[in-house]
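Need residues for this backbone.
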């Protein structure tokens, strides 16, 4: 349900060379788009290997009281506070959604460098977002979607 522009992500990544992973919201990482370095994934994989069955990151599971957390918050806290994968820059151009104080998320007009917008629960709202973000009409968005 996120409108995502991969070409914009490529440009954003160039600014964060060497980052462990990129936080996408000032309130902590949110799930619509998560960007991890190879180092972050390798560190997480090593923690999985420490568990008795290899199905959970042992240090992260035993080192946190995560209760009702979603996957996004668990992963952020695991990498940042338990496994200490750094640096963890926050980039507000990675995602625009209301829960991260991006009030115009629905209109998708935060500029040509916004990587993703979230959430869109209907095909029509998704198309409208894509059209607004690309500076065209919904028919342009439909044509782009058909190519992919």
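Answer:
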């Amino acid at each position: 349900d996120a409108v995502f522009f991969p070409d914009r992500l490529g440009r954003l990544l160039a600014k964060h060379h060497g980052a462990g992973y990129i936080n996408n919201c000032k309130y902590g990482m949110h799930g619509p788009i998560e960007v991890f370095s190879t180092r972050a994934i390798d560190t997480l994989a090593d923690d999985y290997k420490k568990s008795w069955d290899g199905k959970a990151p042992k240090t992260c599971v035993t080192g946190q009281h995560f209760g009702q957390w979603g996957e996004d918050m668990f992963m952020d806290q695991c990498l940042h506070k338990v496994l200490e994968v750094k640096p963890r820059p926050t980039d507000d151009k990675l995602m625009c959604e209301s829960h991260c104080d991006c009030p115009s998320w629905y209109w998708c007009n935060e500029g040509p460098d916004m990587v993703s917008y979230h959430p869109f629960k209907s095909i029509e709202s998704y198309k409208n977002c894509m059209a607004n973000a690309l500076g065209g009409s919904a028919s342009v968005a439909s044509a782009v979607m058909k190519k992919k």
